[in-house]
Amino acid sequence: MNSFTQLRGVVAPVLGDDMNTDQIIPSAYLKDVHANLGEGLFAYLRRKPTGEKNSDFVLEMDTYKHSKILLVGNNFGCGSSREHAVWALQEFGIQCLIGKSFAELFRENCLKNGVLAISLDDERYSIISNFVSNTGGGELSVDLEKCEIQNKDHELCDFLIHQNERYMLLNGLDDIGLTLGNVDLILKWEEHMIGHHSFLQSSITTGY
After folding, report:
1. SS3 of 50, please?
2. 185 and 146 part of one domain
3. What is the pLDDT of residue 35?
4. Which of 95, 72, 96, 56 is nearest to 24 (CA)?
5. What DSSP letter does each residue of 157-175 carry, written as one string?
6. 184 and 164 in one domain?
7. What is the pTM of this model?
8. Does 188 lie in the same domain as 108?
9. C-alpha to C-alpha distances, 207 to 88, 94, 188, 198, nearest whole angstrom
């Protein structure tokens, strides 16, 4: 998994509360292992029932077609726990989400795949929202090392993230990678347990 340290990119507003995972990636795209999840991202919002592109949807606008950051609403990613929702965002090019809150399972899936999901309080969210609406395609920098969101001139606001999650993202680690970082300690503990419990030692030796 790639590490996340700093990111600069255009912020696309995909607003509205309770945006669920079926809206992010419709279930039709989960049936084919070869489906283009990037094309499926927000498919029913990006395209009309006829299949024609909906030019009014933000990610179909030239300004936002290559956005790396999404500004979203409250409880983003609710609904099912499908990890495909995060994969679809990644395949489109989204590496960071800024919102008020995220569904817990969705936020965990973001973490496991190296996508930074930032939750802001009302005051900080308003600062970012105003910047996005006033610039219409302006770029922001997200600095995970400093926990800051900046425009080209200065810091706009800071943000909070659990220290363990920050460490995992900065170092490109998922849960397995984090565990393997302690493999020496795990092996020492196993040796200790085997050495102090004859039953375990006998079981390993005999296979019973």
Report:
1. coil
2. no
3. 86
4. 72
5. EE----HHHHHHHHTT--H
6. no
7. 0.85
8. no
9. 46, 50, 21, 13
